[in-house]
TrEMBL record:
Belongs to the UPF0065 (bug) family. InterPro entries: BUG, Bug_dom1. The keyword Manganese does not apply. It comes from the Bacteria. Residues 1-16 form the signal peptide. It holds the Pfam family TctC. CDD domains: PBP2_Bug_TTT (cd07012). Keywords: Signal. The keyword Cytoplasm does not apply. This is Tripartite tricarboxylate transporter substrate binding protein.
Amino acid sequence: MAMVMAFGGWALPAAAADDFPGRGIEFVAGYGPGGGHDTMLRSMAKLIRDQDLTDTPISVVNKPGGSGATSMGYLNSHKGDGHYLMAATSSFITTPLSVNVGLDYQDFTPIARLGIDPTILVVAAGSSISSLDDIRNADRKLNVAGGGAGGIEHIATLMVSDALGVDLNYIPFQGDGEVTTALLSRQVDFAMVNPGAVADFVSSGRLNALAITTDERSELFPDLPTFTEQGYDVVAYVFRGLVAPADISDEAKAWLGDLVERVQATPEWKANYLDPNAIVPGYLNGKEFGEYLEETNELYETMLTRLGLIGG
């Protein structure tokens, strides 16, 4: 039987504890300070430090550019070195599909998925639309607000169009603030948006939420039904995960996976990161995350092809 050593209160294989890490771990954010990648990684680093989960130094570096392509190239330049851990969200899939960057999800080592950002369908208070059936039965093409072309809101709108059997006019905006303004001013009929961006408007009654794109109801929005339970097959969300370079050692993979699993298991992770950012828990280990990425890539490739956004 292999010997084990206690590491930070958890048992790890002796080889992993002895050989890895050999120096500090670098967390890599593919977007600038204050963005989603940066916020997640800095929240992790702070929790690791505050909870004394490891004595290994953790630093966060930002490598913005190319909708995540720059950080992917940076991580790939450290192939075989497990001392790098990069935030991965949906752009990790969509950027290589949309633009030929010479890399895709298969060129990295999946470590874990930490949560998901659902999309909700919202209408302005007083709208004639009060149910999904109202959208299905509309006597004209409805205008839908959402984020940039090819993003999760665009893909979710295409799925809504398929599920309800209606043609919808998707209008991309430059951020959730513009989407909310367009909806409140009745420039559009409804919006597909991140719930965190409109939670206050829903709570105040200025907007009404009709459905959420998760598989099951979210504990953050327990009264909001899913599309599925209303009879429409629409499940779509942004994932938040972590990947390492390709070809890292089994010891490095085990150490990184263990650290991340311990982070997400703490009450502080939920209280200080997931809940304030309206992120639904959705932990997957490295193997499960790898399978999820394969399935997600297939879905996104299909949808982006239909939208005419696949690069070459």
